[in-house]
Amino acid sequence: MSDLATVSAEIAPYLALAANSLGTSVITAAQQRIAERTVTAGEGFFRRLLHRGDDGLGDDGTRPLLDTRRADALDELLAGLDDRDRQLLSTAVTAWLRAPEDHRDAPHLLDHISRLASAAGPPTTNNVTATGRNSIAALEIHGTINMGGGTGTQDGS
């Protein structure tokens, strides 16, 4: 959750700014790209915002400034999230976009992310160990395993 919390705190003001100045369809597209892992550094959502030609993404004293350097840094943060955090972020953005318009600000987005991450709990870690002849240590197997070396009987005789 710490990576997600850090990234969310960085990107929330810019997502809110984009949603309110460019419309929710822009953020919906970003949400889909986040979930599908197609946001990568250098060609991501925030860099694309700069090329939309919208002058609403500047610094008027109350809004964050989005320049090329900052856009690339934000896209790099998104690209660094693992699949679980990307799904949580994507789901939170979807819920946030469905909220009333007066709730489409950075604090409300962060609230959605925090609630979803808390409900999801910590990531699961599995330690699998095997010992002995012909042992297999696996969390999940899809397919057939042939142990080989035997004469066709269970005990190898």
Report on the architecture of this protein:
The protein has about 160 residues and is an all-alpha fold. Helix content is about 50%, strand content about 0%. The protein is built from 6 helices and no strands. Helix 1 (about 1-20) packs antiparallel against helix 2 (about 25-35), helix 2 (about 25-35) runs antiparallel to helix 5 and helix 5 crosses helix 6. The longest helix is centred in the N-terminal third of the chain and has 21 residues, at about 1-20. The model has no long low-confidence stretch (mean pLDDT about 75).
Question: What layout of secondary structure does this protein have?
Answer:
Elements (H helix, E strand, L loop, with lengths): L1 H21 L1 H12 L9 H6 L17 H12 L3 H16 L7 H15 L37
Helix pairs in contact: 1-2, 1-5, 1-6, 2-5, 5-6
Largest beta-sheet details: none
The rounded Rg comes to: 22 Å
- Strand fraction: under 5%
| Count of individual beta strands | 0
| N-to-C order of helices and strands | HHHHHH
Spatial shape: elongated
Low-confidence stretches: none
Figure out the total of helices.
6
Mean pLDDT across residues = 75
How far apart, in Å, are the first and last alpha carbons?
52 Å
Q: Class by helix and strand content?
A: mainly alpha
Helix fraction, binned, reads 40-55%
Can you describe this structure in just a few lines?
With 157 residues, the chain is mainly alpha-helical.
